């Protein structure tokens, strides 16, 4: 190094003398994030100016007062749990023998992640005909969302874990036909400056609506089916005594049938004979009596006819 007069010896001697002084500390400044800066990156790349001390071997990086990493570079990519809210960081330079040669004063910064837009895909401004729709939405490629809160009519309906990829969905069950509104919010988990877990919203959709209307279906009348029953041998088992007629019983039935026919014939003949007696005999008697009376040789035939009828009635 040289001074403004172009001389190097005096500057070098003074610098070497300063290094030998244990109380001498070289100051260097932060590059990113600087004091009171608000950032959106939950895992920032911490960057600072290099120390002017040529003997510096490495740097110690402190986060929220705790040693977080050791590096030979003048920057450090934070890779721990996501940072959310207010935090602080500082750096100390070490030369050979782990002697501290300089430091970057502690600065504070705030991590406020960007809220990215989630896009509702279905159902949006439509009428559906079922009570079990599948809600569908799309996240961004760069999203750090870990879980989603699904809201229905202004109330949180369910919390679902993010699946791999940008397309997300949730099947729900509704209870009535009406108009519904819904939206989705995305959240991630990080730590505050005390190392405590904290949840931060980093995604949000607009609120959309849909309507459920289930059409009334009137059934079409149909003719009653025709049922045809075909008797089978199994329907009349021979072992059933009610349906079984023995040979002897069959012969008796035939014999009774024949006797019945014979008795019927005899009865018809008897009726015929009675008709003959009742109708023909009185006529004969009447004719004979009239003939005798006409010849002047006898009495009227009427008394004899009445006597015959009276006797016939008694026999019957």
In what range is the share of β-strand residues?
Answer: 35-45%
Distance between the termini: 171 Å
Largest sheet: 9 strands, mixed
Specify the number of helices: 3
**Structural class based on helices, strands and sheet pairing:** alpha+beta
Mean pLDDT: 79
Number of strands: 18
Helical fraction equals 10-25%
What is the radius of gyration?
62 Å
Weakly predicted, low-confidence segments: 1-17, 290-295
Write the element-wise H/E pattern from the N-terminal end onward: HEEEEEEEEEEEEEEEEEEHH
Taken from the alpha-carbon principal axes, the silhouette is: elongated
Descriptive key words:
disordered N terminus; about 325 residues; about 25% helix; single chain; elongated
């Amino acid at each position: 190094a040289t001074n403004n007069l172009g001389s190097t010896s005096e500057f070098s001697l003074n610098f070497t003398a300063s290094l030998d002084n244990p109380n001498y500390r070289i100051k260097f400044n932060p590059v990113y994030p600087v004091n009171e800066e608000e950032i959106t990156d939950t895992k920032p790349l911490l960057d600072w100016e290099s120390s002017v001390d040529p003997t510096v071997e490495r740097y110690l990086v402190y986060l929220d007062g705790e040693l977080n990493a050791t590096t030979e570079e003048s920057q450090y990519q934070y890779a721990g749990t996501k940072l959310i809210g207010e935090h602080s960081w500082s750096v100390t330079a070490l030369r050979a023998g782990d002697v501290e040669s300089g430091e970057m004063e502690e600065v504070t910064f705030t991590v406020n992640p960007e809220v990215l837009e989630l896009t509702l895909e279905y159902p949006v401004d439509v009428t559906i005909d079922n009570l079990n729709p599948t809600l569908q939405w799309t996240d961004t490629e760069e999203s750090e969302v870990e879980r989603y809160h699904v809201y229905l009519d202004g109330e949180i309906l369910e919390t679902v874990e993010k699946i791999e990829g940008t397309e997300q969905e949730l099947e729900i069950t509704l209870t009535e036909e009406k108009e519904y509104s819904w939206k989705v919010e995305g959240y991630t988990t990080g730590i505050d400056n005390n190392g405590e877990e904290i949840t931060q919203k980093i995604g949000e959709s607009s609120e959309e609506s849909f309507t459920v209307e289930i059409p009334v279906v009137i059934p079409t009348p149909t003719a009653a089916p025709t049922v045809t029953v075909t008797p089978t041998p199994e329907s009349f088992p021979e072992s059933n005594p009610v349906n079984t007629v023995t040979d002897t019983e069959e012969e008796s039935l035939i014999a009774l049938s024949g006797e019945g026919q014979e008795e019927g014939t005899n009865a018809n003949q008897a009726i015929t004979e009675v008709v003959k007696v009742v109708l023909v005999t009185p006529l004969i008697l009447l004719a004979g009596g009239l003939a005798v009376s006409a010849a002047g040789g006898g009495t009227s035939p009427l008394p004899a006819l009445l006597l015959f009828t009276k006797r016939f009635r008694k026999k019957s």
